[in-house]
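Below is the record:
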Amino acid sequence: MVKAYAKSDVGKAREINQDSYYITNDQFNDIQIFILADGMGGCNAGEVASKTAVTCTKSYIENNINDTPKDKESLIQLIASSMEYANMVIYEKALENKEYEGMGTTLEVCLIYRNRAYIGHVGDSRIYRIRKDIIRKLTRDHSYVQKLVEEGTITNEEAEVHPKKNMLMKALGCNAFVEPDVMVRGFMKEDTLVICSDGLTNMVKVQDIFDLVKANFETAPKELVDLANKNGGLDNITIITIKNL
C-alpha cells in the first residue's frame, strides 16, 4: 500500500505561490500518480505555467493509462508523452497571451506501479528516495551550476552559494519541444520518495530532509515547510512524501 502527504507554502519572500502539485486519489487502485511543478514568469504567469503543467500531465496520463501496456517501456513513454503534451500547451498559451510571455515551469512526474517508480523530470525540482539509512537524489538538476559541477569548474559546495544558482538550462514551456529525463527506479516496501521544489532544497540541508522524513513521513511535509521558513523562506516551498507501506 502506498500513502502520501503533501504541503505547499508561499514562503516568506514571495507574494504568490507559483508551485502546484497533485497527489493521487483512489481512482486507480494499482497505479498512483504524483506531480509537482515550480513555475516562473512575471505577474502570475509562473502560477499559470505550473497549474497548466500539473493539469495537462494528469489528464493526459488518466486519458491514456487504460490503453497503455503495463510494461516498463510503455509506462516510461506515457510519462514522456504527458510532459511533452503539457509543454506544448504552456508554450502555445505563452504565444497567445502577451502577459504569459516567457513563462515556464519545472515538472516532476512520478507514477507508482508494482514496486516501481516511473519518473519524469525537467528543471531543478528534485526527487529523492530514502531506503533504510540512505537518501539518494534520483533526478539531475537541469541548471547552469549543475553543468559547472559536472565540468569540474566548481565544487558542490560552491554550487550551493553560486549567484547563478537559479538559472535553468531546461524548463517546460520555454521551447516548442522539450526532452524530459525519464527513468524507472525500484520502490520497495518501506522505501520513501520525497518530491520537492527548490524552495525546500535551497533552504534546508539534505540531512535535515532525511531526518524529518525518516522520523515521520506523514508530518514531514509541514515540518520541512516550517524549517525552510525558519531558515529564510526565500521561495515557495512544496513537498510530497510517498511511502510504500
